Amino acid sequence: MRITQGTFSFLPDLTDDQITRQIAYCQRNGWAVNIEFTDDPHPRNTYWEMWGQPMFDFKDPAAVLYELKECRKVHKDRSYIRVSAFDATAGWESVRLSFIADRPLEEPGFALQRQEGDGRSIRYTTRAYATDKPAGDRY
Amino acid sequence: MNVVTAPAKRTGRYDAGVMKYKEMGYFDLDYQPKDTDILACFRITPQDGVDADEAAAAVAGESSTATWTVVWTDRLTACDQYRAKCYRVDPVPGAPNQYFAFIAYDIELFEPNSIVNLSASIIGNVFGFKPLKALRLEDMRLPIAYVKTFNGPPTGIVVERERLDKFGRPLLGATVKPKLGLSGRNYGRVVYEALKGGLDFTKDDENINSQSFMHWRDRFLYCMEAVNRAQAMTGEVKGTYLNVSAGDMEEIYERAEFAKSLGSNIVMIDLVIGYSAIQSISKWCRRNDMILHLHRAGHSTYTRQKTHGVSFRVIAKWMRLAGVDHIHAGTVVGKLEGDPATTKGYYDICRESRNPQALQNGLFFDQDWGGIRKTMPVASGGIHAGQMHQLLHHLGEDCIMQFGGGTIGHPMGIAAGAQANRVALEAMIMARNEGRDFLAEGPDILAAAARTCTPLAQALTVWKDVTFDYASTDTPDFVPTLTVA
Q: The whole model's pTM is what?
């Protein structure tokens, strides 16, 4: 399967040129670009690991791409890597754009577990097959 | 036989009898509205022979303290404070015998945190007033002091995006069709296919409640099975607006509680449940971390015609105060009423922290929303993937685009329809962010995306010539003109 979190998951994987143009868009808007990675793809896993701080003062997309490449050297094919942009404007103060830049080679997907309760109600649990293994050995 | 005597000549303001509203203190062109006043702009169409100023004063009177005759009990009150004052009357450009009447109301006339009280005053009595042929409430300015008495949306655009983990693009939805007749089991199938295919939300229609073909509990159970299955298939947060509208508030709460117990992240109501019910369920949603979707069922009965009723921009303002997270606000290009400039006004009311006066968009007043959360406008009705560039241009990023027929009617099935919409949207966002002129290049951008997405290619073929090009009835009265600086 292919997890479809992020803004561009329904398009073919982005090239570095395409990623650079998205970073440039974020910087034009004054947003801080952030690189994060994880090997836990659960849809409610909010806090991916941060690759350093959000790049608040970076003005050059190439500098962000350099950091992305550094992150890939450690995590490529073994984690998801996402690029996100943070807008500190009053009234927003949250993420403006977030897309997956790299994926593991295999995406085994999720099991849906059902616990039957009273009156036909069911409690659902989404479990990523990858997280059956310990962190670091998942992909 | 009764003896009718001529009324005594009036000599004082409080002598018994009838006098002109204009002379009773409801008309003062020198009045300077206070920052704390609630302001309203009405479009008045007086009956033939009725003076416009007197008609405007009557509106101010009948929507505040006046009755048809002088009452001495006014003198037991600080009556001048409680009298609304018409402070300006302008002829409507290009519309003979229509006038914009601007009326100021003291803030103490209104109960805090009550759309019911606000609307009972402003539109309660006056719309049936005989000296007027027609009356329309065009816009209101709610002072920040009054805005702050309301809770506003329980979730708001930013927190909704955080909860759903969806940023940088409009959300995608679809209303399940056919809207009547599906069993719970079949209904859930549509939900599952649409969400798995790529939509973020599916939606109950306004009249899906609890009918013989599908009882509400059955629908909720099958829908949540579909939501959870789709979530596991995609690794993405999904939702379905479970319509909890019902005949009484107890039943609404029961349905909302059941939705919560099943893990739904959103519930839905119809505008016709009423303003008190809306504020109640909004409060419930705030307590229960639930997104609240409002379907504006019934609004066109009073919002569409320009001469009589209440503009939707007023309803949008009231609903942001009452506290809804989603509100249907028009598509511009779809099958339902929606002039582009007027629709922009509605969207700005929902999404901005401050609305400057913009007559070309129907906004008559500056409106400060303070920190009240933002309502996500929903575009629904007769839209399809081939219009993606126009939709993004007119509606922007913070909205929900709902493709009902444009998903479910896809020749290769519901999931393919959903995929086509999602690919079209992501391709358009990518192009926009890259700085391309996506409106002009839209068809090329879609064609390029369709080369690696057969469902999109099929959608573009099936619906390529579908447009709904009819004249709008509700259009702005002002057009911007270029001036030499």
A: 0.94
